[in-house]
Design goal:
single chain, 431 residues, alpha/beta, Rossmann fold, 2 domains, seven-stranded parallel sheet, six-stranded parallel sheet, 13 strands, 44% helix, globular
């Protein structure tokens, strides 16, 4: 049994994205029989306690730490979000040190937020430290930055900061240099971590699925004369919804196709204008934010999943769509390029906006004309997704943990100490 300390700023059951990642790492490690301590915010405390009342887990221990109030007093808006996160990290360091003195952890693992830029100070404790899975090394292709308009200034600044200024980022540089292992969720982040001096970096998907959510065979679909495309996500500049709509406008009028959009966000008010401007009212339906149960139902009611993100570590909805047996059209970059199987996906080259838009439209036309190809691709997608469950991800990570523990100087000292304890004492005649 290992003693594992997790740092999970975002951690909450029955949630997607970062909160779900934090919860699933903790839960699956504990289910595997390891002694797990989790440092997190009180945000998800009530939901966590409710789950634990229903399913007690004696070897899962929680320390709820709110961010220091000083960060909230001096910074507001989005800047305040990051200021609170950094301040929380250093509060966690102080608590983790005291906890480690008592518990003597085998591994310390920072799981959320999964961002290269903000790093983690927990490497300072000296226990083998794992950082990730992280993204953040990916940037928006230069030719597509006009999609950001005035609402994307912070994102454009972030893209600039991930260039040369990254080398002066002490938080990121010190973290990856001292981490025993960095897990990166796309090739761009892996390369950035190496350039900052990381000793060991592995590509590792930042999301997985609950084992019980995967059907025993590829989901079947009711036949339809219309090829039903689906887009799911927050409506942000970097998600590239406008690119997807422009591609849909280029799809031949001879083909009976439709697009359903699920999600809302800062650019939500512009969606009806985009649809009208491109004359897509007869082809496109925007349903805004919908409950998770309805999202799952909608996956099953559609034929193809489209993913047009201009900047994304990976995208949880890609794995969800694959689990529902949907073939996928995406841009050929970042996490989607690195992890999605080619047989389940049409990956559109990222060149110029016009050319990319035309090729995205051509991919939509191909799958609209070829129902048998859709079915084959969907079966491959489902086959890939069924191997991306949380229990399997944790088994893989635990093997790396064991390797790190065996290499650790601290572990070598422990073994020598135990060996001395077991050596008979010749002079006193005691064993």
């Amino acid at each position: 049994m290992m003693k594992i300390l997790l740092s999970a700023y975002a951690c909450e059951p029955n949630r997607g994205s970062e909160p779900g990642f934090g919860w699933n790492w903790a839960w699956e490690y504990a289910k595997s029989g390891h002694d797990v301590w989790v440092l997190t915010r009180p945000t998800g405390k009530s939901a966590i306690q409710q789950i634990l009342r229903q399913q007690p887990q004696k070897n899962l221990h929680w320390v709820f730490l709110p961010p220091p109030q000083t960060a909230s007093r001096f910074f507001g808006g989005e800047l305040g979000v990051y200021a609170r996160y950094i301040a929380w990290q250093y509060r966690v360091l102080r608590v983790a040190r005291k906890l480690n003195d008592k518990q003597q952890f085998d591994i310390i693992h920072h799981v959320t937020w999964g961002s290269l830029w903000w790093g983690s100070p927990l490497w300072r404790i000296g226990t083998p430290f794992v950082f990730g899975p992280i993204g953040g090394g990916q940037v928006t292709p230069k030719a597509f930055r006009n999609h950001y308009q005035h609402m994307g200034r912070l994102s454009l600044f972030r893209d600039w900061a991930m260039g040369r200024p990254l080398r002066w980022n002490y938080l990121a540089r010190s973290t990856v240099r001292h981490a025993a292992l960095v897990l990166a969720t796309n090739r761009e982040t892996k390369d950035k971590a190496r350039s900052l001096g990381a000793r060991s970096v592995k590509l590792f998907l930042d999301t997985s699925l609950p084992k019980e959510s995967i059907s025993s065979c590829p989901p079947s679909r009711s036949p339809s004369s219309t090829t039903r495309f689906l887009w799911v996500g927050r409506i942000l500049p970097r998600k590239g919804l406008k690119l997807c709509l422009e591609a849909l406008a280029d799809v031949s009028s001879q083909l009976d196709v439709s697009l359903t959009i699920l999600g809302d966000g800062p650019l939500g008010p512009q969606v009806p204008n985009w649809i009208a401007e491109l004359k897509l009212e007869h082809r496109c339906t925007w349903r805004g934010h919908v409950p998770w149960g309805e999202v799952c139902k909608t996956y099953r009611e559609h034929d193809v999943f489209v993913f047009s993100s201009l900047r994304d570590s990976f995208g949880s909805q890609l794995l969800e769509a694959a689990a529902w047996g949907l073939p996928i059209i995406c841009l050929d970059h970042q996490g989607a390029r690195d992890f999605l199987p080619s047989g389940a996906t049409i990956k559109v080259p990222v060149t110029t906006p016009k050319k990319t838009e035309k090729e995205f439209a051509a991919a939509m036309e191909t799958l609209a004309r070829e129902p048998q190809q859709r079915q084959r691709m969907g079966e491959i997608a489902w086959g890939w997704a069924k191997n991306k469950t949380w229990d399997k991800s944790v088994v893989k990570a635990l093997k790396w943990y064991e390797e790190l523990i065996n290499k650790s100087p601290r572990n070598t000292l422990r073994r020598k100490s135990k060996s001395r304890e077991k050596t008979p004492c010749v002079n006193c005649g005691q064993g």
